[in-house]
Amino acid sequence: MPSTKTGPAELFYTDQGTGDPVLLVHGLACDSHDWLFQFDAFTAGHRVLAPDLRGHGRSSAPAWGYTPQEFAADLAGLLDQLGTGPVVAVGHSLGGNVVSALAVARPDLVRAVVAVDPAYGTSQATAAALANLSEQLGTYEGNEIAATAFAALEPSAQPWLRSWHGRRIMGMEPRVLAEAFHRIYFGDGQFGVRPASDEFLAARSCPVLAVHGSAELADWERSLCAHPASQAVAWPGAGHWLHQERADEFTTLVLDWIAKLPD
Known about the structure:
- About 45% of the residues lie in helices and about 15% in strands.
- The chain is α/β, with parallel strands linked by helices.
- The mean pLDDT is about 95.
């Protein structure tokens, strides 16, 4: 499988299928295997690029560079090297922030965004609780604490799915896990927490499909999407890994939406 140097990071990625390009971006403490549930259907009609973000999977882990914007810069470098042209950028959780950052910084590279239960739109009250978790992730038991916290996000998932996610968290390099989590919600340039989320996301000019587990968040994001082809849907009762727990429904939703995008 190929890898490429983008700035200080060497990114592992897969490149399969032919047709209009789709970029699949995983979330925190995950890797490109997260999209196995979609690969066959997506590659049947599209060129599918699935990278491991820096510090994740088989990509390298530089000493710095774990903001959504820096992850996005890596992906811009990859797309530029491959000459893909504009992609439909699909991102889960942290990946939803990353593809949004890519759409804002490099609109020439993003035809549309699909944000899957993204890690933005967080309230100030929730951010206060996340600040405590962020501090804990920097401790000796940080990975175990993260595994417990992540398990609470998927109460409806099958046991094997929760086990898979937990084992990958335990295998993460602790400094990467702690830094990447912290920079989603805190520090200069964060847009995980409102009102910073509102201002940043309103700068996305492309069509956006947002899939949330919360009807309130879907309504909120709908108000930020300026393009008429945008859509925000809610799947109440689903866990955080929507694209895995309801894989067939998710795949159909995304492919049907892509097929209707304006040229």
